[in-house]
Amino acid sequence: MGVAVAAAGVVVEAGAAVVSFVVAGVEQPQWLDLAAPVGRLLLWVACWMLWCTAVSALIRNRVGPVLVLCLVPLLGERVVGMLLRKVPGVDLSGVGEWLPFTLGRSMMVDMSAMATEERNFFRLFLGTDVPAGPAAAGFVAYTAVVAVAGFVVYRRRSG
Length: 159
Description:
This protein has 159 residues and is an all-alpha fold. It has one domain (35-158). It is built from six helices and no strands. It has helices at 2-24, 35-58, 63-85, 100-106, 116-126, 132-158. Keywords: Membrane, Transmembrane, Transmembrane helix. The chain crosses the membrane at residues 41-59, 132-154.
């Protein structure tokens, strides 16, 4: 249901953009070029809905899931990535690029057509240079694992 609401929102926003461009006399963009980014956005929204539900099932109190889902993507994964680079004798520097929310951020940006300066900026911002397609697949895989875990815990508790 949430994905349908997000998709309907995208259609309404696109319609509003078309009307705005016509009223302003601005040339229409290539709307088909936006299909892949909008598709990734809808996938990202669907995954986040599952993350929220699953983490709420895994953590029984009300504050825990909110803290986890706010702090882990913003701070936790960056700290884990830095700590993985500091492990002596083992090169784990690439593991931080494949953490779930890093992939979630990366799936939203296609850096393949960017200039080197832009790519470097986005790499610092995103924490990875994994292409959008593999990043989306990785984020969906992490989402599936967490959703199944949340479902199993929920079923076990509810009997």
